[in-house]
C-alpha cells in the first residue's frame, strides 16, 4: 500500500535545510513552521516509527525528506520500520516484541487497538496544529472523542484496469469474475480487503457478523480463484505498471502513481460501491518516547509538511491547509476529491468481534488453499 508519486524538476537546488518542493513544477520556498520544535531535552533520543511502506515524502525526485527535516530540526533520530497491511502491524503491536512510538493504522484497526487498550491518549497541548484537520474527519466512529488518533490520509478502493487489455470501460466489480480475463486478474492478499469485493458484489454489509454471509463470500472467492493471476499488496505496482495484468483493485491514490508510469492504466469506482478509509497517527500504549511522538504528529500537520506529503503520496488530505492551498497540484483531481454527485457509495470497515475475525480468517485460509 502507498507508493511514491514522482515530482518532476528540471533544475533542483536545495538552498537550506528548510526547503521543499510543494508540487509538480512549483519552486522551492522556505519551510514556515507554526509549532515550536526547540526541544533540547529530546536531542539524541530515538523515535521508533512504524508506517506503511513509501507513505511519507522521502526526498526522492526532489521532494522534501520529511524525516530528515524533523531530525535536523529537533535532534531526534527517527527509526523507520514498515508494514504492508493493518494485520501485520497489529501482530507486531499485540506481540509487544518492539515498543513503537508512533504508528499509522487504518480506521477499523484503530478501533481494535483502542478496544484492546493498546493505544494511549494523545497530548493535544503538544499537537497545536490539530485545528487544521477538517471537521468531517473528526469524531468518527473509530475514535469519537478524538482521543487516540489524528487523521493522516483518506482514500477509497477502486478498480484499476489496463485500457489496452480490457475491451471497454468497466463499471462493476463483476469484471473480476469474468472468465475472459482469466490469468490477468490481481486481487488483495489480505482477508478484509479481498472479502470486501465479494461482499459488495453479493450486496452484503462489509461489517456483517452472519456466518452464512461469510460462507457465501468465501464461496464467491473460491469461484473466482481459477481466474486469479496473483494475490498481491505492494507487488501490484510492478505488475500493473509493466502491463503484466489487466485488472486490479487497489487504493485510489496509488493509481495515480501507477498511471504516471503506465499511461494505459485507467480507474473507476464501481457502481456497487467501495470501501472508504481514514489512516491516522496513533501512539501505542507501550511507547517509550511519547513526547517525541506527539511532537512528530504536530510536525506532520504543519502546512508545508502536509502539502509535501500530499503531493508525494497522492492520497486525499484531511488537512485544510493543503486543500485550501492554491499551489496544491491535486486539489482538482476528481479521483481523490469527487464532486458530490459523482461520489461512489461507500462503506467503512469496522472492528469485528474476535469470533467473527477468527471465522473469516479460517475461511480465508480455505480460499487460499482451495
Question: Overview of this structure, please?
Answer:
The chain has 370 residues and is of the alpha/beta class. The protein folds into two domains: 19-152 and 279-323, Periplasmic binding protein-like II (D-Maltodextrin-Binding Protein, domain 2, 3-Layer(aba) Sandwich), CATH 3.40.190; 155-276 and 339-369, Periplasmic binding protein-like II (D-Maltodextrin-Binding Protein, domain 2), CATH 3.40.190.10. It contains eleven helices and twelve strands. The strands form four sheets. Strands 6, 9, 10, 11 and 12 form a five-stranded mixed sheet that branches. The two termini are 26 Å apart. 45% of the residues are buried. Mean pLDDT is 91; it is low at 2-28.
Please provide a brief summary of the model.
The protein is of the alpha/beta class and 370 residues long.
What secondary-structure arrangement, pairings included, does this model have?
Layout lengths: L18 E2 L8 E2 L15 E7 L13 H9 L2 E7 L2 H10 L6 E2 L3 H9 L34 E13 L22 E4 L2 H11 L9 H14 L3 E5 L3 H6 L5 E5 H10 L3 E4 L5 E8 L8 H12 L1 H11 L6 H4 L22 E2 L6 H16 L1
Parallel strand pairs: 3-4, 3-5, 7-8, 11-12
Antiparallel strand pairs: 1-2, 6-9, 6-10, 6-11
Strand content: 15-25%
N-to-C terminal Cα separation, in Å?
A: 26 Å
Can you identify the CATH class of the largest domain?
Alpha Beta
Instruction: Give the beta-strand count.
Output: 12
Rg on CA atoms, Å: 21 Å
What is the fourth-level CATH superfamily of the largest domain?
Answer: Periplasmic binding protein-like II
Major sheet description:
5 strands, mixed
By CATH, the architecture of the largest domain is named 3-Layer(aba) Sandwich
The total domain count is: 2
Secondary-structure content class:
alpha/beta
Mean pLDDT: 91
Instruction: Report the CATH topology name of the largest domain.
Output: D-Maltodextrin-Binding Protein, domain 2
Total helix count?
11
- Helix and strand sequence: EEEHEHEHEEHHEHEHEEHHHEH
